Amino acid sequence: MAGSYGERFGEMITGFRERTEVLNLPVIAGELGRFLALNPYYKESATVVAQTEQVLDSLENAAFVSSEGISCDGGHTHIGTDSIREFGLRYARAFLEVLG
Fold it and tell me: How far apart are CA 92 and CA 12, in angstroms?
């Protein structure tokens, strides 16, 4: 399934934009936590991240938010409290940048 993620993600964004009749609807998506690579249940996370970034790079009014330096809560699954605040600020900056 991960191998076709980019195609499905792109179709979903196009569908949202068409159904809302806002063809330049802003789209912001964040990178999965890099710590997921340490969790055996998320072996395909690098594939999903690469395809997410590729799709967003190909679209107008879209941004990809890096999770570099974002840490987990200890279980290699969820983002920690301080990091989620930082990630939220990154999303806000990306959104403002997309809006111009």
Answer: 22
